[in-house]
């Protein structure tokens, strides 16, 4: 990145920033949040527009009982000029009316047993010296002899309840076996009329919302313009004032490859500027540079955080291992083929899934890796490929090896479990190498002696162990290699971990580091067992659906319909669940185990040029 510092007259700032918008490559340092009342209002307006768009997009009244009335209201609806504000008002009113309708329907249900009556005529009994009391009781507890205590009239009764009233002279001593309930305020028909009036208003509002949904493109255009205006305002307001506010200092960054064209453009503008190569202390924005394959995985890095300016870009490593981990967790060649088809359909625009917009290529790539790994591990739509391979063939022997157990000092363990642990060890060792090299480049060798010590101990020890197991070096060579590795790593970890500090403090720090490393590394390696466990679980569940379908099939006939339904529904369900696990767990292995051991911080800010 090249850092540009512009010194402008205050009156020139706005015009200059508009020119930068046109260029569209300079990331102007600006506030990441509202800085005054005006920018707060602008941000609130942008947020409101985004919420309105989201809510309008989710509207669908195809299955609404009043669809016909809604479509009629849609045809008659007229929009206000303020699309966002008026749509918000309609959404708020709809929520209030729907709540009022629900309350009215509840009141209808409560009044319905009392029937249709004139409340004013009942109230006249009070003026004549009589009191009407209302009761509801369980049918089993109702006693017909209560009518002998005072005049009693059953209004209605259902399976379990009885509603009745009693009439008695006002002021007379009154005793009854049960307590009265509150009198209904009016007839159920009055409540129904209220609910119906609410429903009519709801139909009108829903029709109006459909009209606003039709206007989403205009709202989105307004939303994008407000975003640009907010970005421009923050860039303008974030400039540093000088010389009693007569001058404004604006700072920005642009990729080095644009230096020549920008220099020419700034010279034509006649502005005073200083350019220099950006340093880590300037905290410049980050623009990742990757090939076409790795670029598909940049969104994963962005989910965690962009690298600092002096930090390495983890995306190339993340891309390879996330692809491998996803394929191992899904682990079914048939599911991989399905993902390839879905990804290609999304990329061609034949299938649109808003939450995966622009990820068709990535999905197809993940599917291709899954098809290869699933085929290598021997699973196709829950079927074991080994059963389809001729006896005595080399392929049969391969699948027997891949699906079998391997003798170890801890007993026989599944080959695929050992494979997952082996990949985990390699992944963590690679992370430690990257950490040692990256930290040395950023902070110098002197500050990272302990890091190199642990790298020599763990990676060097593993290499010697593998050479010894493979009998590629003699026992004498192994002995001297272990001695050299042990001495060098011990000196680096316990004596020279912080040069210039008291050796006793260094030893204590080294012991504490040893405890953390021993417990952390073991837990990190064991985490990779999930690559085996998830693939096994998905394969077993797919096989279970196959067995269930086969059991239902029986002698065929009409059972073929149920067989196909079970297979389709079962495998779609298994694919969706397996894809979720195959996304989350590989992400965790990269974000936690790999990033922790590679020392990746991810505190950088993404390159965001001022643009229209």
Task: Please characterize this protein's 3D structure.
- With 612 residues, the chain is of the alpha+beta class.
- Helices cover 60% and strands 10% of the residues.
- The protein contains 20 helices and twelve strands.
- The chain has helices spanning 13-23, 37-57, 67-76, 83-111, 119-127, 188-214, 216-237, 259-269, 292-295, 298-304, 315-330, 333-348, 360-377, 394-402, 415-443, 449-469, 475-495, 503-527, 530-553, 559-598; strands at 2-9, 27-28, 130-138, 152-157, 161-169, 240-242, 247-254, 272-277, 379-380, 383-384, 405-408, 411-414.
- Strands 1, 2, 6, 7 and 8 form a five-stranded antiparallel sheet that branches. Strands 3-5-4 form a three-stranded antiparallel sheet, covered by helices on one side.
- Helix 11 (315-330) packs across helix 13, helix 16 packs antiparallel against helix 17 and helix 19 (530-553) packs antiparallel against helix 20.
- The longest helix has 40 residues, at 559-598.
């Amino acid at each position: 990145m090249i850092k540009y510092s512009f010194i402008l007259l205050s009156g020139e700032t706005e015009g200059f920033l508009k020119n930068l918008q046109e260029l569209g490559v300079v990331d102007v340092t600006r506030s990441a949040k509202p800085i005054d009342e005006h920018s707060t209002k602008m941000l609130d307006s942008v947020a409101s527009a985004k919420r309105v768009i989201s809510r309008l997009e989710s509207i669908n009244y195809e299955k609404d009982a009043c669809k016909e009335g809604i479509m009629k209201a849609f045809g008659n609806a007229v929009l206000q000029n303020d699309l966002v504000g008026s749509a918000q008002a309609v959404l708020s009113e709809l929520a209030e009316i729907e709540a009022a309708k629900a309350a009215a329907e509840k009141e209808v249900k409560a009044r319905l047993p009392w029937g249709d009556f004139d409340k004013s005529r009942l109230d006249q009994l009070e003026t004549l010296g009589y009191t009407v009391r209302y009761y509801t009781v369980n049918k089993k507890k109702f006693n017909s002899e209560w009518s002998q205590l005072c005049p009693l009239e059953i209004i209605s009764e259902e399976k379990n309840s009885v509603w009745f009233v009693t009439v008695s002279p006002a002021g007379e001593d009154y005793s009854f076996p049960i307590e009265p309930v509150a009198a209904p305020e009016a007839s159920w028909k009055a409540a129904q009329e209220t609910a119906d009036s609410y429903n009519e208003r709801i139909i009108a509002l829903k029709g109006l919302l459909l009209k606003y949904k039709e206007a989403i493109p205009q709202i989105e255009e307004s939303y994008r313009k407000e975003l640009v205006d907010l970005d421009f305002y923050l860039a303008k307001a974030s400039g540093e004032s000088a010389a009693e506010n007569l001058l404004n200092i604006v700072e920005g960054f642009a990729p080095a490859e644009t230096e020549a064209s920008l220099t020419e453009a700034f010279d034509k503008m006649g502005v005073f500027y200083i350019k220099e190569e950006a340093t880590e202390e300037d905290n410049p924005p980050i623009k990742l540079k990757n090939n076409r394959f790795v670029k598909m995985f940049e969104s994963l890095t962005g989910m965690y955080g962009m690298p600092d300016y002096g930090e390495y870009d983890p995306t190339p490593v993340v891309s390879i291992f996330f692809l491998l981990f996803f394929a191992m967790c899904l682990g079914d060649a048939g599911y991989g083929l399905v993902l390839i088809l879905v990804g290609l359909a999304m990329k061609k625009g034949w299938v649109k899934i808003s939450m995966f917009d622009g990820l068709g290529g990535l999905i197809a790539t993940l599917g291709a890796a899954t098809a290869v790994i699933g085929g290598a591990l021997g699973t196709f739509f829950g079927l074991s490929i080994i059963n389809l391979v001729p006896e005595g063939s080399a392929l049969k022997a391969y699948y027997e090896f891949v699906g079998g157990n391997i003798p170890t000092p801890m007993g026989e363990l599944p080959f695929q479990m050992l494979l997952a642990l082996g990949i985990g060890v390699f992944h963590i060792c690679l992370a430690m190498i990257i950490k040692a090299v990256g930290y040395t480049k950023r902070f110098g060798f002197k500050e990272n002696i302990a890091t190199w010590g642990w790298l020599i101990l763990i990676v060097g020890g593993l290499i010697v162990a593998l050479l010894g197991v493979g009998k590629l070096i003699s026992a004498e060579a192994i002995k001297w290699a272990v001695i050299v590795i042990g001495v060098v790593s011990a000196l680096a970890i316990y004596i020279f971990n912080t040069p210039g500090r008291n050796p006793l403090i260094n030893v204590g720090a080294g012991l504490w580091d040893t405890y953390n490393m021993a417990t952390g590394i073991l837990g990190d390696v064991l985490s990779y067992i999930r690559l085996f466990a998830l693939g096994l679980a998905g394969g077993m569940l797919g096989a279970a659906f196959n067995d269930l379908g086969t059991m239902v099939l029986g002698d065929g006939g009409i059972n073929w319909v149920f067989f196909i339904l079970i297979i389709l529904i079962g495998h779609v369900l298994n694919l969706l669940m397996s894809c979720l696990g195959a996304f989350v767990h590989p992400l965790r292995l990269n974000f936690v185990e790999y990033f922790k051991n590679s020392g990746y911080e991810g505190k950088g800010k993404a390159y965001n040029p001022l643009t229209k």
